[in-house]
Amino acid sequence: MTQPVAVLVDGDNISGKNGAAILGISKEHGDPIVVRAYLDAQRASDWHGAIGYRLVHAGSGKNASDILLAIDAMDLVHAKTATRFIIASSDGDFTHLAVRLRELGAKVIGVGEAKAPHMFRASCSSFVELGAKPTVKLVPKAQSGIADMDLKIRAMIAEHSKKGAGMRIADLAPRMHVAYGIKISTLPEKTWRSYLNARPALFDLDPRGPDAMVRFRPEGFAAVA
């Protein structure tokens, strides 16, 4: 099932010339059902000509756009309107918002320029840097030595995945126990979600839920393919 995506742009920080690129990125992650750019709409801006965006006038106060964007993001995640968020800004102030959204089970894709600070990049599930041609999604590199257990997980997902949708995380525990005698509770991570989340270069997870799926990243296992 296609995931609902909220696209929230710091229009005072990111140029409207990037509007089409940001929308293109959002469509790679699901269906962009909320698409907003926050800015002082009374000022001249490229965002006035951006197609597909709802402009949200935040006023001229200090950090007004940042605050309103953060409020709307929390409203959307609590209402379960979106499970994935595109936060477009090069401002490190959104680090805390990204962390909080992920704690609530959402996937956060940061989008920004080369000047975007490391703290904001690291707080997102993934980060896409604008300005390069073509725009390149930065994916964490896999370790050169992939653990035998990760190879077993990949094989299990491949066996039970249909059309690349992955397999239910809830099904992973009993199947890994039956097939390999592995009990995740005996490992430092204690839960399968924690184990998989700690390996973002190898696995991609849905937000929390009874039917949440996990998929393996082919590029992460390329060295052993």
From TrEMBL:
Gene3D superfamilies the record matches: 5'-nuclease (3.40.50.1010)
InterPro entries tied to this protein: NYN
Descriptive protein name: NYN domain-containing protein
Pfam families assigned: NYN
Residue ranges constituting the NYN domain according to the UniProt record: 5-130
Domain of life from the UniProt record: Bacteria
Source organism: Roseinatronobacter bogoriensis subsp. barguzinensis
One MF term in the entry's GO annotations: RNA nuclease activity
